[in-house]
Amino acid sequence: MNAKERLVLVGNGMAGMRTLEELLAIAPDKFDITVFGAEPHGNYNRILLSPVLAGEKSIDQIMINDLNWYAEKGIRLYAGQEVTRINRARRQIHATDGTIAPYDRLLLATGSNPFILPIPGNDLPGVIGFRDIKDVETMLAAAQTGKHAVIIGGGLLGLEAANGLMKQGMQVTVVHVLDTLMERQLDPVAADMLRASLEERGLRFLMGANTAAVLGEERVRAVRFKDGLEIPADLVVMAVGIRPNIELAKQAGIYCERGVVVNDTMQSYDPRVYAVGECVQHRGQCYGLVAPLWEQAKVCANHLARYGIGRYQGSVTSTKLKVTGIDLFSAGDFNGGPGCEEIVLRDPARGVYKKLVVKENRVQGAVLYGDTVDGTWYFQLLREGTDIGAFRETVLFGHAHMADSGRDGFSVMTMTDDAEICGCNGVCKGAIVKAIAEKKLFTVDEVRAHTKASASCGSCTGLVEQILAATVGTFDKTPKEKALCQCTEHSHDQVRKTIREQRLTSLRAVFDFMEWKTPDGCHSCRPAINYYLISTWPDEAQDDQQSRFVNERVHANIQKDGTYSVVPRMWGGLTNPKELRAIADVADKFKIPTVKVTGGQRIDLLGVKKEDLPKVWADLNAAGMVSGHAYGKSLRTVKTCVGSDWCRFGTQDSTGLGVKLEKMTWGSWTPHKFKMAVSGCPRNCAEATIKDFGVVCVESGYEIHVGGNGGIKIRGTDLLCKCATEEEVKEYCCAFMQIYREEGRYLERTAPWIERVGLSYVKARIVEDEENRKALYARFLDSQKYAQIDPWAERASGRVDAHEFQPLRQVG
Amino acid sequence: MYDWHEIGALDDIPRLGSRVVNTPHGDVAIFRTADDQVFALRDRCPHKGGPLSQGIVHGHRITCPLHNWVLELESGQAVAPDVGCATRYPTRLEDGRLWLGLNNVVSLPSASREAA
């Protein structure tokens, strides 16, 4: 006798197997499990049958668990075995081949059957439903030989089948008994937009058509309608709805209505018999979508494991149509009724339609067509019954509109006190409101100083502004031009302009001339002014080491424990055995704890003691390597792919061009870090379109992309222009870097800089104005004369800044 | 009471710069301001232990390189709204030579706070 309890699952589909997976996760050894499945496969994702039919996925890709999985988990699987009878008195089930399996718990997950219209000819070969792999195989076979397909039913499943068969080359007619498609998910407006779009793709529709008979002798030949019309058909797919498959349960005397009736713990009227999925009727409701199955599976598994917590209380469902290129979303009650209002946005030119049905400021339902990005958000508002009163006027513009810029000051009102505002520093809304109230704060800077909210990456600044506005009332958030820091009234642009016009070449001159309020500035303004000085007067201004952040002063990256990281330059990401040996030797010699490959195609040595830095550099220099400036507001890396040298797709020598660009631009100081990449073809393996300056090689030349950023806020590049030769690319590269160097504000990446000045401005200055471009190019090259000195070699020699790397004294 | 240790010359430290002295109390950061005054603080930011000697000196203040906390060099106190304190040590400048005073009871850093 087996010590474990015996669980038998009838139905090897998604609901049943999900329940088992949930069960195995929480109580892996509780049951001895047997599974019966009518289909001869493992378990697959039924909702992906449509992409399989459309040729976008293969059967293999939609398998969830193959036969091995069952063996591994010790589950007995009878695939291709139908269960014919349940003997509840003896607690046994009987299968077609005579197998008898005893159970302590029985789980029914028999799913549903497609509803086949009771019309003459409905049993002819070539008339099928759309339910399983076999149906898909039948359809694919029919598409090989036949020409005409008729889909009866213009619902979700019918349209997905129609789309798939059309992609397989058949002429498809969709027959629908009503005047609008997908009436259970769409309102008439969205349904019409959908129909128009599908007609454009080549589907034909017969609306308001009543099917009378399927005609044919050996196999289906045509479909006839009540009005006498006949259309040819080599394949007829009935997609008029599903019926819970309850034959087995009924036969065993388990109480059924439309489905197997279950309570909130997924138990049928026989407490040893559980049921989940489409065969179930719960609180009068049957479900044909996947989300409710997951919820049911979780609850059921929990009760099978005897945890005894969790109730299934029914689901609100949402729908997406799986037809590539058509974005459609629907949820809840989208038709409304007494007391409901509709908020509608309709833009025929863009093919966008959004409708929310709202009752007493709570979302009841949503229909989205063309732009479904916010489907999940609306669905969340719907499920949680959120009061949208505070942001009702902008709700249709979407969640991003509210959270991102947040200029309208609504969304924060609805956030709870424990909602996290600043992810970097873990600051919740409640903490911010408390600080504003208790410390009487009035500016974002003050909130930042007191709470650290928005003090790190700054992406939540908009939200912080909103909270401030909501807490202290409206405030003037745009003083004329923002002061550089608290040491002055002047802005970044004013400081730079004065440096240029007055020919100021030292920090002291700037402090004096511009009447700084502090004797020698602060950690914010000094690095900025130093940058403006050396970028404006590269040959005259003295680079002030004490006004540089430590990383740029010691030419390595400070780490949290006070050690440093060292990244030698690898031109275009190329290295060789000699360099690698030198790196390995250095790591051994100085006991460097971590060696890591960076995202910029170089090698990072982490955990170097400060006093070791000059010795590490000397060894790296000896192998021919120089500083990678991984620590600076400067040119970082030029990432490349292998290009035409090796790659079968490469169109140009991307690696070689990358090396040339890096050799030309290394050592240059910029307002913020500056990253480049060169990809050898539009597959873009070097990810050039999220770099400050990216080159994408094509057969006919080089596309120049600018202003990308892969950091906190991702921004794809803008296409600046196309170049024919490498020489031209180099000229554009320098010109772009130089205009950014001259006009970008300190600590402003190219991405926000371009958004501030506009791409058309950049184009006007360096694409359309050739003279200016050449002048910028010349100025860049000129300033490089003073910049391309390896800072590591200087310091390794012991002649520069030696004091930085040695303690002053040892005492005691 | 202090033990006074000669640690070098004023010009060993760059203006608006800092050097480190290794002591039994741990590392001590010696700062030189623009007006040639010299201050000493334990080389650990009260926030997350960042090495203050690596920060930027401005006025009579130091900004920690890790998270931009600002501390008063004279008292070691963090500038509001941050709250915290780095142990300070007395310094003397005589005939161009720098002297650092260390509490002669070598113990936990908290003991040397009384000296301040």
Secondary structure layout:
The complex is a heterodimer of chains A (812) and B (116).
Chain A lengths: L4 E6 L3 H13 L4 E7 L5 E2 L4 H5 L5 H4 E3 L1 H6 L3 E4 L3 E5 L4 E4 L4 E3 L2 E4 L3 E3 L12 E2 L4 H13 L2 E5 L3 H12 L3 E6 L11 H14 L2 E4 L3 E6 L3 E6 L4 E3 L2 E4 L3 E3 L2 H5 L8 E3 L10 E3 L4 E3 L7 H15 L13 E3 L7 E5 L7 E8 L4 E8 L2 E8 L5 H10 L14 H5 L16 E3 L4 E2 H11 L4 H8 L9 H12 L19 H10 L5 H7 L11 H12 L13 H5 L2 E2 L5 E3 L10 H13 L4 E4 L5 E6 L4 H10 L12 E6 L13 H12 L8 E6 L13 E6 L2 E6 L11 E6 L2 H18 L6 H8 L1 H10 L1 H18 L3 H6 L12 E2 L2
Parallel strand pairs in A: 1-2, 1-9, 2-5, 9-21, 11-18, 12-13, 12-18, 13-14, 20-22, 34-35, 35-36
Antiparallel strand pairs in A: 3-4, 6-7, 7-8, 10-19, 15-16, 16-17, 23-24, 24-27, 25-26, 26-27, 28-29, 30-31, 31-33, 32-33, 36-37, 37-38
Helix pairs in contact in A: 1-9, 12-14, 15-17, 19-20, 21-22, 22-25, 24-25
Chain B lengths: L1 E8 L7 E7 L2 E7 L5 E5 L13 E3 L2 E3 L6 E3 L15 E2 L1 E4 L2 E7 L5 H7 L1
Antiparallel strand pairs in B: 1-10, 2-3, 3-4, 4-8, 5-6, 6-7, 9-10
Walkthrough of the structure:
The complex is a heterodimer of chains A (812) and B (116). With 812 residues, chain A is α/β, with parallel strands linked by helices. Chain A has 7 domains: 5-112 and 244-304, FAD/NAD(P)-binding domain, CATH 3.50.50.60; 116-240, FAD/NAD(P)-binding domain (3-Layer(bba) Sandwich); 327-403, 2-Layer Sandwich (Enolase-like, domain 1), CATH 3.30.390.30; 411-472, Orthogonal Bundle (Arc Repressor Mutant, subunit A), CATH 1.10.10.1100; 492-548, no CATH class; 552-622, Alpha-Beta Complex (Sulfite Reductase Hemoprotein, domain 2), CATH 3.90.480; 635-787, Sulfite Reductase Hemoprotein, domain 1. Chain A contains 26 helices and 39 strands. The relative contact order of chain A is 0.05. With 116 residues, chain B is mainly beta. In chain B, 6% of the residues lie in helices and 42% in strands. Chain B is built from 1 helix and 10 strands. Chain B has one helix at 109-115; strands spanning 2-9, 17-23, 26-32, 38-42, 56-58, 61-63, 70-72, 88-89, 91-94, 97-103. In chain B, strands 2-3-4-8 form a 4-stranded antiparallel beta sheet. A 3-stranded antiparallel beta sheet of chain B has the order 1-10-9. Chain B starts with a strand and ends with a helix. The chains are: A alpha/beta (812), B mainly beta (116). β39 (809-810) of chain A pairs parallel with β2 of chain B, so a sheet runs across the interface.
